[in-house]
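Attaching the record inline, Q. Sequence:
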Amino acid sequence: MMFLSGHGFDFNKWVKLGIPYVSREKEAELRKKLQRKKDNSKGRSNQIFLKPFHIKYLNNIYDKIDEWLQSGEGNELELKPSSPFFRKLTYQELEKKYPTLIAETHSLPDGKRCIKLLKANESERKKKEKSKDEKREQELLDRVGFRAVIDMIAKHKKLIIGHNCFLDFLHMYYHFYGTPAESLKEFKTEFNSIFPLIMDTKHIAQSEAIWPLIYKFGTRLNDLFNACLELDDFDIGVLDIPEKFNRYSSDSESVYHEAGYDALITGQIFIALINYLGPGNINDIVSLLDHPDISKYKNKLHLFAMEQQSYVDICGEDNTPLHDNVFHITFDSEYKSRAIIDIFQVHGKCYLKWISDTTCYLIFKDLHGLVTPEICDKIIRTYPEEFEVCTFAHYSSNKDNPETVLGKRKLDETEGIHLEKPAKRRKIEDSQFPEWNPCSIL
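Structure, as predicted:
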């Protein structure tokens, strides 16, 4: 909410003009409810056992209907307003006693509801019933709303492009299809059956082929877009925007993080990246995506973790990050991020991922795959007396063993120093580094 508010999101417009949608799960529930309503209107659901006062109530209605039919006056008869229970009772018995009449519920100006009866032959009754069913179906489709667009994309197996979009796809699946499976493997299989072709420009940008060109800019969406605009290596093509839709043609800062604008520049970034990676002589997008230099990025979604090339492979086995450039730190008193970075940055550019007030991960940006035992030893020994430091590998392998992690024993030089029990976790704004179970995020 804070993010949306900070980027000018109009919540009033969302409430008033927002496009509705329901998931497949919710649609199935609505269809069952619609069928129950249809059965109720015909008195076929949960039949009411007649009691003496029910019979007296119905006899009064029968007398009024018989009088109307015998008089031949008009084609409509409006019964007195009644409660939902007595309307259900009336529908149940009218279908048996007067099968040629059409019965409908109508709302009165004062908000009360009544049953209106219509004279009709068999053909007219069937036509009326068909019209009523079509109206109910259209009301349901109106509630399905925007999911119809997602269904159409999935039906035709269209390429979907996103930037750092793993969580976006999780939210899309949850809201449009249903609760993800508890197993990551099951979720990936189901997700891929719906969206068989997706690509993540964040993942492509952090590849060995692209990263050396853009690392000075970074891989945030606007930074990557600027890299594609400024570097001669990339060609985003020519975008022809009609004059009446020129809001995104200039002053991008004011529209950054609007969904439409972010989608637009994500597409342009994708064009620039595949133009660079592709052979240059293929104009057909399908053939281009099948080229070995590009197809290897299919269905791989970037994970915001601790190093380059951490991703979920929707169609295969996920890579196992080395994390040799990651260290776990714990300390007795609270430290600010800047103070900790100042201590360790003598070994290279680094940043933190907080776990609690007194524990965090220390990540060296440029040391992935390059941390030798000698470098590791220097990093581990660069700390004040109240710090305890160990490699991520050692922390991960022992964090569930209270005898080694929670106890304080001296380790050999290459292992680092063990941890005390972490302090109580705190809520923080920046992302942490959990064990990745994407289905638990929602």
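The chain has 20 helices and eleven strands. The chain has a mean pLDDT of 81.

More tomorrow.
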